[in-house]
Amino acid sequence: GGEENLYWQPADGSRPAERLSVSSEQHRASAWSPDGRTLAFVANDVVDPNSRDIIALTPGANGKPTPLFATRFDENYPDFSPDGKWIAFASNESGRAEVYVAPYPGPGPKVPVSAEGGHSPAWTSSGRELLYLQPLGTGGAGPYKMMSVPITLGATFSAGRPRPLFETPLGLQANVRGYDLSADGTRFLMVQPQPRPPIRPTQVMLVQNWFEELRRRVPTN
Q: What is the pLDDT of residue 1?
């Protein structure tokens, strides 16, 4: 329809795609809740197209998207905790993107997790560790450090001190996470830019008398 909205379809192709959202703004799917019922996605703000909001949608229920985090700041990269009681996301309300965790579905305050900038949080399957990317370039650009934070979940949430795991050039940042973690938490799957060899020219085209053609096509008077 011209807009990047949300659709879903059985992976085996047994049914055609079904549209989940209808909007003139861009929608990007980010994370399913552990029970598989609710999808958190990132949407361009209707009032301010330069701002992103985090929206929840439960297909097959009332079908009405519900804002989770919608302010004048950028909120993006949502990810549910394995127990479904918390949601990690990034916000730039401090002046740069940082990672926060808030109770889901709320209410309750958000707790800062990153210390020196961060986005793209991902929970490990145990829920005892939260990963995120810390930009090393100017303006939040790459390369990045993959950071790990020990987490304690329960009636309350607490986060330990972030520690670096490795550096990565990681590409494809589009308000939803550009990497994922294996189920056992031992491997990463990520999109990374690769150098392209220069293309050697195979021919040279010489155009003669092009001033005459220019005068004929674009007369001066």
A: 66
Tell me the pairing of strands 111-112 and 75-80: unpaired
DSSP 137: S
- Residues 5, 24 contacting (CB under 8 angstroms): no
Contact 144, 164 (CB under 8 A): no
Q: What is the pLDDT of residue 63?
A: 65
Find the angle CA(36)-CA(38)-CA(41) to the nearest 5 degrees.
120
What is the token pair recorded at 38?
């609710």
What lies within 8 Å, CB to CB, of 26 at 6+ separation is 3, 4, 43, 44
123 closest CA partner among 36, 42, 31: 31
pLDDT in tens, 75-92: 999 999 999 999 999 999
Report the alpha-carbon distance of residue 65 to residue 69 in Å, rounded. Answer: 12
Task: Report the pLDDT averaged over residues 134-150.
Answer: 86
Q: Calculate the average pLDDT of the chain.
A: 88
Which residues are 159's β-sheet partners? 151
What does pTM read for this prediction? Answer: 0.81
Phi/psi for 126 (5° steps) reads -80, -20
H or E element: which one contains 210? helix 210-217
Answer for the pair 77, 65: CB distance below 8 angstroms, yes or no: no
